[in-house]
Write a structure and sequence with these properties.
- The chain is mainly alpha-helical and 383 residues long.
- Helices cover 79% and strands 0% of the residues.
- The relative contact order is 0.14.
Length: 383
């Protein structure tokens, strides 16, 4: 219920109907990207002290506030405030549900069931979102505020469930202020950056994945304007997002096979999916073009398992969590910096021209990024 925010198929369209420019829409997305990173550690500190149960309650309450703000807002600045609430809520929820589940199972010596239960839960979330996406299109056509109101109801239902949780008692050796003070946070990121900087192979891989992540994240706010430009009725937006989710789910299952088949060319292949989608959508100006977005869903489904495979092969076990959080910080920072610039572009060209420009730009940037990776990998083998 807490993940049933059925807003994906209609959010950009809603912004446009409220009079926002693409630059403003991308600035909101940038705030979301950087806000989650900024809030993550402070909310983690609070979760450790007050318990994961109350962290999850705050997650749902803050998302309910976000839905209410969006439902009544007509102003860019109010939307921006709403996105801050969303980012704060996301930070409270980040990992708290998984941690609460694992600690509960551990208390009863059932840790072996964790992956099975977590996987089942995520499958429920995914397919529920697919159904919710269909519902969102019809609700939006009836009244454009209804998807936000329905989403608000869903997350408030999750508060009722969370309130009834019994949190397992977890013994800790942590002294107050020992683990989560400012100095330790700064040292944590220094250590993470140090590992990345000191490993040329990891550094070049992170640079390539950051490049791909920025362009893929920028593609999402373009879906709905493209659908509108090719005259797809808004009631079908949800059905298309239903298809997108199913394709991504299936692609995720076969990610390991794709990586095995492409070997050292995997990241190039991932980039090619985005480039082909961008360029073909820039040239196709009929309703058929909507199905070209499905190419990006292959990337979406495979990205996490493939990227984390690359990361984990190159990161020492004793500092794995630190380095992964540092990589996430870098990627979100780059996304936050680039999205407003993409918005400026979209305000001055057609949606088709924007796709062609971005596809061509990614193609050009892939050459030096790939060359850097090849050199770094070759040097490692020589050593």
């Amino acid at each position: 219920f807490s993940n049933l925010l059925i807003l994906g198929p209609i959010l950009t369209l809603y912004y446009l109907e409220k009079g926002l420019s693409f630059t403003q829409i991308m600035m909101i997305s940038a705030v979301s990207a950087i806000g989650t990173v900024i809030f993550e550690v402070p909310t983690g500190m609070m979760a450790d002290r007050m318990g994961r149960k109350y962290s999850l309650i705050l997650n749902s309450v803050l998302w309910a506030v976000t839905c209410f703000i969006y439902a009544i807002s007509n102003s860019f600045w109010v939307f921006l405030i709403g996105e801050v609430f969303f980012s704060l809520g996301a930070a409270f929820g980040s990992g708290s549900d998984s941690a609460l589940l694992y600690d509960h199972l551990k208390a009863y010596d059932q840790e072996g069931e964790y992956q099975k239960i977590e996987g089942r839960a995520m499958s429920f979330v995914f397919y529920s979102q697919a159904i919710g996406a269909v519902l969102a299109g019809y609700l939006y056509k009836w009244d454009n505020r209804l998807p936000f109101i329905v989403s608000l109801f869903f997350v408030l239902v999750s508060v009722i469930f969370a309130w009834r949780f019994e949190e397992a008692k977890v013994e800790t050796q942590m002294v107050k202020g020992e683990k989560h003070n400012l100095k330790s946070y700064v040292n944590q990121f220094r250590a993470g950056f140090g590992v990345i900087k000191g490993n040329p192979k990891l550094l070049s891989t992170v640079a390539m994945i950051t490049l791909l992540s920025v362009f893929f994240r920028g593609s999402f706010p373009m879906y709905q304007p493209y659908m509108k430009a090719v005259d797809l009725d808004v009631t079908y937006f949800g059905w298309m997002f239903f298809i997108f989710n199913i394709i991504a789910a299936q692609a995720s299952k076969f990610a390991h096979r794709a990586m095995k088949a492409t070997k050292s060319w995997t990241l190039i292949g991932m980039g090619a999916l985005i480039i082909i989608s961008y360029l073909s959508m820039g040239m196709v100006k009929t309703t058929f073009g909507v199905f070209l977005i499905c190419i990006q869903q292959l990337y979406r489904g495979m990205s996490r398992p493939i990227f984390y495979k690359y990361y984990n092969k190159r990161i020492p076990s004793d500092i794995r969590a630190t380095v992964l959080s540092t990589i996430s910080f870098v990627i979100n920072l780059c996304i936050a910096a680039v999205l407003p610039l993409q918005g400026l572009l979209m305000d001055h060209v057609t949606i088709f021209e924007a796709h062609l420009i971005l596809g061509g730009l990614l193609m050009l940037l892939m050459f030096p990024a790939e060359a850097w990776m090849r050199v770094a990998h070759k040097r490692e083998h020589m050593l």
